[in-house]
Model the fold of this input.
Amino acid sequence: MDNEERFGFTGRVLHESFTGHKEVVAAKRKFWGEDIEEELAERDIIIRSASKSILAEEADPAYKDVDRIVEISDSIGIAMRVARLAPIAVVKG
Done:
């Protein structure tokens, strides 16, 4: 696999190693969409959602630790750290 192919797989493979579908399901049971909407708005993140309940999937615990994923990817040479991005919007259908 060349570096271009690795780039496409890095996040997916490491994501599945750290977290998976069960965390998203747990987040939907544990968090309220209204609370998540407030938290995102406080961080100046624009929100568009078909319903409040689906926003529970956006709770921070439902996601992998992206900083850790980048650190590992960079250290083993399958990706290179070049920038730190911040979310500006969430769109849920």
In short: The helical segments are 3-18, 21-30, 33-42, 66-75. The radius of gyration is 15 Å.
